[in-house]
Amino acid sequence: MSLSNWMKFGRGGRPLRIAYGRIFHEANAYSPLLTDFSAFDHAALLKGDELARGATLGGSELPGFFPHAELTGFVQAARAAGNVEAVPLASYIAVPSGPVTVEAFERILEDQIERLKQAMPVDGVYLALHGSMEVKGLGEQPESVILRRVREVLGPGPRIAASFDLHANLTDETVKALDVLIGYRSNPHWDLAPTGFRAGNRLIRALRGEIRPVHAWRKLPMVLGGGTTIDFLDPMRKVFRHMKRLERDPRVLSATLFMVHPYTSADDLGWAVHVTTDGDEALANSLAEEVADKAWTQRFKEPPPMLNIEQAIRDARASSRRKFGPVTMIDIDDIVGAGAPGGNTQLIRGLLEHGQDLIAYVPLHDPALVEATWELPIGSEHTLTLRGTEGYDMPEVTVRATIAARIDSDMGRKVRLDVGKLSIAVMEKPPLPIHPRYWREIDLDPRKADVIVQKNFFHYRMFYAAISFDHLPVVSSGATSFGRVRERKYFTPVHPETHIEDWRQYDTTLRMRRAAKATELQANK
Ligand SMILES: [Zn+2]
Asked: Distance, CA 259 to ligand 1 centroid (Å)?
């Protein structure tokens, strides 16, 4: 066999064998809803052969979310490279919510580890992770535990690649555990499959000795709100464009800016820049500094103006775009896509007090109310109290409501209550009304509303592009209130709470925080 042919194979001239799987969750430490195993046990839980079928261009990898995501991208990279055997483990994902229970985490990890043992021997492993997972009572970052356990099974030879959400909180342990580390390139995230492809491509080339990935990373003492972190809008557009330009250089294997999920309890939370080059450590370091400087200079840009409920109702009523379709009120303090439970009753109270003239559709998480009203006849009228999510401390709102419709969907049971012109979709699971079908299935026409309340920053816009033309961010208080981010505990001073001249002041402390904590823990044992 010629050398060039040999290079296309793994060690010993046989095809490379790479296992792949997913453990994916974004935790919101302010949600009272813990995430148990049932949150991962749905149509998108695929194991072994099922995953292999799902992660193809003809299959669906995350039924109900995305047909093609990281693992489909990875399988495509393996096919494109040729002579790579992709071995499916399992794909576990839950929608963002409160921290995961230890029982659920251990059950999921045990299953993956057992599958990996069955798959051995392998040359490498690729995992789609999030990077802002939290497990209640675990005491360390779940992602590092996952990677450690995987390494124990693999032994020292095989290589590990992982991809992360842009909202990951990077730590020294995860960076050190990985040969290939890739993040999404877009926020909101549209590029799940291309991310998996890049991770697979880098891993395969590294295994064949075609590249030698070396990492450099920096951590910045800053945490900003969602409105300032969109990749194609100011202020971050410049930084994302710069990283794209860097990646055109063949020496640069990846450049990523991680902007963290701010609603966790990690005390070393902070933005991070990660750069991988092909064997050039000095270059990786200088580019990481360069990108960090660029992100740091954008830190004073203000997020878009937020409205309180009364102002938002006034603006919606006065909106000239209302004649073309409903005004969207984005309930930014109760974003289900960022792990909030969706049980905010404050907008409902506001609409009843100040917006009775508006036809408004509002979703509400209130399982107790679904249970209490599920058997009531359609068309009957009742005095009901809305409380939202249990333990979420929302105001109680008592209404005289008509039971207008109900449906048992794949998103759980949903009851429509009508109070004058207000329609409330009461849900047993956290509501994600990103598709207009959410209203149609309870006999509401989204075009006829004056106001629709969303629990999502951006993704809904894709489905409402021809329906809603005015989008108002509304402030109240809930699990995704930015005020919580400002008041939470940090290990170092953090921008914008503290004026910090140079991010380098805290870079090393932040990067080494987990290692320091582990040493402390050992010493106390
Ligand atoms: Zn994210």
From this structure: 9
